[in-house]
Known about the structure:
Elements: E1 10-15, E2 23-26, E3 41-51, E4 54-64, E5 69-73, E6 88-92, H1 113-134
Antiparallel strand pairs: 1-2, 1-3, 3-4, 5-6
Amino acid sequence: MENNSQHNALVILFIDDEVNPIAELQTPIVFNLDTTKLTDGEHVLKIVSKYGKKEGLKTIPFIVKNGPIINIEGLSDKETVNGIIPLMLNAYDTGKKQSFIIKGSENPRVIPVWVWVIILLFAAWSVYYIITNFSVD
Length: 137
């Protein structure tokens, strides 16, 4: 009877250009990648698979953002500005990934102009409707 490990591939996981692997596993396997040990920014997961004398390679670029989310109102990327610019800054943690949190829910936001325009148009139409349909003749 053959050994079961001969029917499964061996996968070796590397992060970025590290020479030492973070894990060597027999497939199929569920592996929890702990990103809290990585710095925020761009990384690459390199997966080397070995099956008999054959070898495969897959690289997956990903971005880690474990630090608090930083939000700014009043300045956007590559915006041309002058004078004094009032900025609203906020930084907060998103909490645990298992709980449902609306991204940015802790952050106060400015109501967009188009929302105010729609509200004013609806209010004006409502006043017009009330005046024209309920006026006493």
